[in-house]
Design goal:
This protein has 200 residues and is an alpha/beta fold. The chain has seven helices and five strands. Bound molecules: adenosine-5'-diphosphate, beta-nicotinamide ribose monophosphate (NMN) and magnesium ion (MG). The site of magnesium ion has 3 residues, from helix 1. It catalyses: beta-nicotinamide D-riboside + ATP = beta-nicotinamide D-ribonucleotide + ADP + H(+); beta-D-ribosylnicotinate + ATP = nicotinate beta-D-ribonucleotide + ADP + H(+). InterPro entries: P-loop_NTPase.
Amino acid sequence: MKYIIGIGGVTNGGKTTLTNRIIKALPNCCVIHQDDFFKPQDQIEVGEDGFKQWDVLDSLDMEAMVSTVRAWMENPVKFARSHGVNVTPGSKEPASKDTHILVIEGFLLYNYKPLVELFDIRYYLAVPYEECKRRRSTRNYTVPDPPGLFDGHVWPMYLKHRKEMEDDGVDVVYLDGLKSRDELYNEVFEDIQNKLLNCL
Ligand SMILES: Nc1ncnc2c1ncn2[C@@H]1O[C@H](COP(=O)(O)OP(=O)(O)O)[C@@H](O)[C@H]1O
Ligand SMILES: NC(=O)c1ccc[n+]([C@@H]2O[C@H](COP(=O)(O)O)[C@@H](O)[C@H]2O)c1
Ligand SMILES: [Mg+2]
């Protein structure tokens, strides 16, 4: 069985932190980080507001990202081996036989049609404005945020994409990013275990 899990939501919601714990706990589990698909800086458009438009689908090579997901779907064992993931042989237990899991994490997972339909379950981490702004101010991206980027571009784009996703009726499981790392991990891990058992 193949199972694709999305961990999406707002920047600094805790997606990467949660993902890194979840993938360690699941068997035969590969991961794809959307951050790895940002286009080079010189290809990022500058908006009328003067800011580089990082937080839009055009800043990402989404075709390459979907191709990577499809490569996993076609041959998860080959994908795992070529990405250094240990593949354990299918045990005789029905609950673990030939189960392959892919976790995809990123801030714009559910606004791109060819990707959104590939998920078996979609988690969505959210944190309020003040906390998001506070966490973001401590982050060091490969390209540092210029002054005013959060209020001028990042937060408005988050609200826009979230509204589009909700208007499109995308089915997501909301997670409260204010909960502790442990609480989030336990909640999501338990939910995944139950979903996997229901699938088998
Ligand atoms: N549950 C949490 N509670 C408080 N801080 C968190 C939590 N999860 C992550 N963080 C912190 O918030 C920041 C962003 O986390 P990160 O996992 O990189 O988020 P994202 O990938 O969604 O941008 C980091 O400084 C991280 O240590
Ligand atoms: N990885 C990069 O090359 C890069 C560059 C500039 C901004 N960013 C920021 O990364 C954010 C998405 O990543 P997180 O969800 O982990 O915060 C976006 O809000 C974007 O502004 C990333
Ligand atoms: Mg991240």
